[in-house]
Amino acid sequence: EPRRVYWRTKESADFVFAARSALYHYRAAKWLIFLEDDMLFTRRTGKLADLIKQARDESTGVTWLNPAVSKAVLMQRQYLESFTGYAALRYDFYPIDWLIDTFEDSLDTSTRRKRRVVSMFKHIGHVRSLNLRP
């Protein structure tokens, strides 16, 4: 469906713009978290800051904070700097989650990261682009 393709392309372009903006405005940050506005914190135990610190300490570049979609992701600054250049050249071809996956696949096997998922957030929006459960 053309509308869905347009929306997913826009989502990828928006992510690149937000990431570059965050890298510029938060120059001292070593880790950045990206959440869409329709995400709900779902962990029943622990403080959000402590859970994110644990995810950060165990991550090697990117940690998905929602197992189903890319609406909640924690990224290391150096990883994000490399990824935004990669994504800026391909945002009109793939959704952002696919871009992250293909970027990881393109890394040298010695530095390739295993996808890390920590379920902390769920999508509560009314519209879902991939017809996945929240």
Total helical segments: 4
Overall SS class:
alpha+beta
Q: What is the strand tally?
A: 6
Major sheet characteristics: 4 strands, mixed
Query: Major sheet: order of its strands?
Result: 1-4-3-5
For the CA atoms, what is the radius of gyration?
15 Å
Shape: globular
N→C terminal distance: 21 Å
Helix content: 40-55%
Element order: H for helix, E for strand:
HEEHEEHHEE
Short description:
The chain has 134 residues and is of the alpha+beta class. It is 45% helix and 16% strand. A hairpin with a 7-residue loop joins strand 3 and strand 4.
Task: Please provide a written account of the structure.
The protein has 134 residues and is α+β, with helices and mostly antiparallel strands. The chain is 45% helix and 16% strand. It has four helices and six strands, in the order αββαββααββ. The protein has helices at residues 2-25, 48-58, 77-90, 96-106, and strands at residues 31-35, 39-41, 62-64, 72-76, 116-117, 121-123. The strands form two sheets. The chain has a four-stranded mixed beta sheet with strand order 1-4-3-5, with helices on both faces. It has a two-stranded antiparallel sheet with strand order 2-6. α1 (2-25) packs antiparallel against α3 (77-90) and α3 crosses α4. The longest helix is centred in the N-terminal third of the chain and has 24 residues, at 2-25. It is globular, with a radius of gyration of 15 Å. The two termini are 21 Å apart. The relative contact order is 0.21. The model is unreliable at 129-134 (pLDDT under 50).
